[in-house]
Amino acid sequence: MKIANLKEDIGKKWSRIIATKYTICFVLVSIAQALVLIYLQVRMLERNGNSLLRIYKLNETDQSNDNCFNGQFLPLYVLTLENLMFIFFYFFQLYFCFNAIFHQNTIQIITIALINFAFVFIGMMQVYEVRSISIALKEDCPGFEFEPDMNEMFFILALAILVIFMGYLSFKLHRQFGWNIYKKIGGDVAIQNLLIMILFAGLLIPVFYILYQDRSGVEKFFIFVSTAMMISVFFFEILAYKSLNDEWSGGMLMFICFWIFALLNFAGLCVVVINLSIETKWYIGFIIGIICFTFSLSTLIYAVFAYRNFGGGLKEYINKNKDRQEVTKVLLSDV
C-alpha cells in the first residue's frame, strides 16, 4: 500500500513537472541556476577560506604584526561564512523551486523571481566587500597576496541572465497556477484571497527558517536561550503547517504565541548582526538582518490573519474537491 502511494505521489509530481513547456523550462533553469551559482560561490569560498587560514598561520608563527590579524581576520571570517550561507541558500532555493511546481504555489513563484532580482544587488555588494578587504589587507598585511578574481563579476552576470529567464517563466507560471487555483476552488474571490493568504503565511515560515542562522557576540545565557529558540522554530514550523492545512485554531494560536517570543529574540540577534556588519564593513549582513526581521514580522502578521479567517469556507471547498477526486478514482477503478 505504501509503495503504491509512493508511486502515485511520484507520478503526480512528475506530471506537474512536464505539465507545460513553461514548467519544464522552469525546472531546467532552476537546476542550472543552482549548479552555476553554487559553483561560483564555492570558488569564492576556496579563495577566502585559504586566505583566512594563511592569516591565522601567519599570526601563529609571527606575532610581530598584530594589526594584520586583529584588523583583517574577522572581516575575512565573515566573508567566508557569507559564502557558506549562500551555498546553503541556493540548495534550499532549488528545493523551493521544485516545491513551487509540485504544489502549484503562485506565491512561491513570485517570491523566487523577487529573490533572484534582489541577489543581483547583493552580488554587487559582494564585489564591493571583496575589494574593500583587498585594499585593507594591503595596508595592514604588507606582502599578503589577496587579489579579487572574476568570480564575483561572473556571479553578477549569471544572476542578471537568470533574472530575465526566471522572471519571464515566473510570469507565465503565475498565470498558469492562478488559473489552476480558480479551477480547484471556483470563482469566489474571497475564498481565493483566503487561500493565497494561507499559502503566503506557510511560505514565510521556511523562508525565515533558512535565513535564521548562527549569531554570536552575546552572553552565554542568551546564546543558550537563542539556540533553544532556534531549535524550537523547526518544531513550531511543523505545527504551523499542520494548523494551516487543517485550520486547527489551537495549534495556530500556540504558534502565534511562540512566534511573538521568537520575534523578540530575533530582534536582539539582528542588533548583533548589524553591529558586526558595521564593525567589519559586512554590508550584506546589515541587509540580511533587516530582511530576516521583516520576514519574521510578516510571518506573525499573516499567521494572525490566517488564524482569524479560519472557518471562512476554504476547508470545505478543498474537502469537497478531494471527495470528488476520490469518487472519480473509485469509478475509474471499477471500469
TrEMBL record:
PANTHER family, per the entry: UPF0658 GOLGI APPARATUS MEMBRANE PROTEIN C1952.10C-RELATED
Organism annotation: Glomus cerebriforme
Name a single GO cellular component: Golgi apparatus
Sorted keywords for this record are: Membrane, Transmembrane, Transmembrane helix
Q: Which residues cross the membrane?
A: 21-42, 84-102, 109-128, 153-171, 191-209, 221-241, 253-276, 282-305
Under what name is this protein listed? Uncharacterized protein
* Taxonomic lineage of the native organism: Eukaryota, Fungi, Fungi incertae sedis, Mucoromycota, Glomeromycotina
